[in-house]
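Model the whole thing, not chain by chain.
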Amino acid sequence: MNSLQQIQEVTHCIECKNICEDFGLNRSGESICYPCCGKLDNVEMKNSNIYTLYVSSANEKEASNWPGSFRIPIYHSHVGYHNMSGKRRDYWLCFDGSIWHGFNCSKDSELVNFRRTKQII
Ligand SMILES: [Zn+2]
C-alpha cells in the first residue's frame, strides 16, 4: 500500500452518520455533511439574533451558508455609498418570523452579518 492509499479514509457525518465526500467541520471539529450543515445553520440562526451568511455579488437575490445548503431569499437590497470602501450594500430578508438586516462594505468579502430586527412579519 502506498502513502496515498493510506490517507484515503472514509468520512462519516457526525449528524446523519452517512458517508460524505463533501463535508465541513462543526464547532467541535467533527465532520458534518453539507445537507446537515444546512439543517444546523437553520436551527442555530433561529436561536440567534446575529448570524453570518454569504451574499454573492453574482447573486444578490439570496443569502446562504458556506456550502450553499441553507438559503434564504433576500426580499430587498440597496446599494449606497460608504466613505471608506466606496460601496455599501444593504440586504433584508425574512426568517423565523422576523425581518433581518445586514450590510457589507467590503469589496473582498461576501460575508454579511445579519441582525434580527424588532420588526415581526
Ligand atoms: Zn449529515
